[in-house]
Write a structure and sequence with these properties.
By secondary structure, the chain is mainly alpha-helical. The protein has helices at residues 22-42, 53-64, 73-108, 123-141, 144-155, 159-184, 188-195, 200-234, 242-251, 255-283. The chain has a single domain (73-283), classed as Orthogonal Bundle (MetI-like fold). It contains ten helices and no strands.
Length: 284
């Protein structure tokens, strides 16, 4: 291994004591502040209001109720049941999202297009690919909270609205990212199979999927973690789960119950992170 050779400076030359790019960095930092200032004014962002006595006293009183967390057996049984329901909502929603996202992603992947092997994609496949991409934009542009409010009116209160809301929004997110991951991978093996008469599904299963399986799995588990958090938020609009129980506890200013449920959420996020690491090691 060769070590870098440090050549001495010419005689009479002093080393630079200032970053030569400091002017550009200072300019862009000031430009960012100039742009952020009107945004802060428009959004009425005033964090100092949190330090006013009328806001600080009830906040400190509520936070003081967090200690100690509530650990009554009846309440822990309730939390365990609602936690399982939250995980079930997230898992079922993500499963339906995969059913929606995988075929849409495969339809929008350019590298699996046979007509694109010779250069420009044919008109019909290109039009279908663009329509699928527009559909993915529509699905992910509507937040899951909006979908949940719609489905609460359609199917009523309960976990079903949360599952459907997660399925639609996450179907658009997963489909878009899956397509980008597959398109950005090495396409030589896939193109070789397609040129030699292989079908699109075979090329996907034997060439495109194996080299991208780790990244696809990691992102899917990350989205499952996000779905758990989303299912908690959806509980505040009547979609069931631990979020609905937390909403009730917060309305009653019961900080000890909220602290227990927040600890459960932290444990769920840690569990999802461990599962992701375990799956990545298995695919390595």
């Amino acid at each position: 291994m060769l070590l870098p050779v440090h050549r001495p400076l010419p005689r009479g030359t002093a080393p630079a004591l200032r970053d030569p790019a400091w002017r550009g960095r200072v300019f862009w930092a000031l430009a960012g502040l100039v742009l952020l200032w009107p945004m802060g004014v428009l959004t009425e962002f005033k964090p100092w209001l949190l330090l006013e006595p009328d806001a600080l006293k009830p906040t400190l009183r509520f936070l003081a109720d967090f200690v100690p967390p509530k650990v009554d057996s009846d309440f822990l049984a309730l939390v365990a049941r609602e936690t399982w329901r939250t995980v079930a909502i997230a898992t079922a929603g993500l499963t339906l999202a995969l059913v929606l996202a995988i075929p849409l992603a495969l339809l929008s992947v350019r590298v699996l297009s046979i007509s694109a092997l010779t250069g420009r994609m044919a008109l019909l496949p290109a039009g279908l690919r663009q329509i699928v991409r527009w559909l993915l934009i529509v699905l992910r542009s509507v937040p899951e909270l909006i979908w949940a409010l719609v489905f609460v009116r359609v199917v009523g209160l309960g976990p079903t609205s949360g599952v459907l809301a997660i399925a639609l929004t996450y179907g658009g997110m997963l489909g878009k990212v899956y397509a980008e991951i597959l398109d950005s991978g090495e396409a030589h093996a896939t193109s070789s199979l397609l040129r030699n008469g292989s079908g699109r599904l075979q090329a996907f299963l034997y060439a495109l999927l194996p080299q991208n399986a780790g990244e696809l799995t990691s992102y899917t588990v990350y989205r499952w973690e996000c779905a758990i958090r989303s299912s908690a938020v959806l509980g505040f609009v009547g979609a069931g789960g631990l979020g609905q129980q937390m909403d009730a506890s917060m309305k009653m200013f019961n900080g000890s119950e909220v602290a227990t449920m927040l600890l459960v959420f932290m444990a769920l996020v840690w569990l999802a992170d461990r599962i992701s690491a375990w799956l990545r090691r298995g695919l390595a």
